[in-house]
TrEMBL record:
Keywords: DNA-binding, Transcription, Transcription regulation. It comes from Amycolatopsis heterodermiae. Residues 6-66 form the HTH iclR-type domain. This is IclR family transcriptional regulator. Residues 67-250 form the IclR-ED domain. The keyword DNA-binding applies.
Length: 250
């Protein structure tokens, strides 16, 4: 009986892996797994009832269901909360500059975690504060996964002129132009855009769908930056964000 149950569990996992490649009908799943169609049909029925699979009423094909995505999202949030403090500490030890973890809350970037470097001059404490999306490195990094239309809708939530210094993109068109370049690069450098004298570098932490879940950011007094230091910070921030995205320890 126990062996039968394990076999059913293994079959269900194999079916979910098959559906991960895209919508499939019962026959296609059976052929992919080299299994009997009746067994696959029964497995899909259970997955459908439990919300782990969905069925298109027209094509009759199955795809991964909402409950699986919800579990994956919860697992990603939990892992990030566990791994981020260690990752930020390692980043500060490597660079000697303050590091932050930021998430998007509505039309603002909210800092939820920070690690300070102990320098006499460093970026201010930002935890619990919301900052604009258009003129901060973490804010624009958190927009990477959104379409231009979605970004436009978010930025229009703030009435009047977009915030920032003269170095910042102060129109929606300018923000979209910056984002196209920054998405391709995989990181954002905001040089004195939100605060004169402060430069920040950010890269997104991606969830299982490849969408930004959070952003890792390092903020540095601009007078300490040289091209070599900036390059080192960019590499370290990108590596930390990538490690948090994949679940490997930085």
């Amino acid at each position: 009986m126990a062996n039968d149950s394990l076999t059913s569990v293994h079959r269900a996992l194999e079916v979910l892996r098959a559906l991960g490649s895209g919508p499939l009908g019962v026959q296609a799943v059976a052929e992919t797994l080299d299994a009997e169609k009746t067994q696959i049909s029964r497995t899909l029925k259970v997955l459908l009832e439990e919300g782990f699979a969905e069925r298109d009423p027209k094509s009759l094909e199955y795809r991964l269901g909402w409950r699986l995505y919800a579990l994956a999202g919860a697992a990603g949030d939990s892992r990030l909360r566990q791994d981020a403090p260690r990752a930020l500490r390692a980043l500060v030890q490597e660079l000697g500059e303050a590091a932050y973890l930021t998430v998007r809350e509505g039309d603002a970037a909210l800092t939820v975690l920070s690690e300070q470097a102990g320098r006499s001059v460093q970026a201010r404490e930002w935890v619990g504060r919301g900052t604009p999306l258009n003129c901060t490195s973490s804010g624009r990094a958190l927009l990477f996964g959104l379409s231009d239309d979605e970004v436009t809708t978010l930025l229009r939530m703030r009435p009047g002129r977009l915030p920032g210094t003269r170095h910042a993109p102060l129109t929606i068109a300018a923000v979209l132009k910056r984002l196209r370049q920054e998405r391709a690069a995989g990181y954002v450098v905001a040089a004195e855009e939100n605060e004169i004298g402060l430069t920040a570098v950010a890269s997104p932490v991606l969830d299982f769908r490849g969408a930004p879940l959070a952003a890792v950011n390092v903020s540095v007094p601009s007078y300490r930056l040289t091209p070599e230091v900036l390059e080192r910070i960019v590499e370290a921030v990108r590596a930390t964000a990538a490690a948090l995205s994949t679940g490997t320890r930085p």
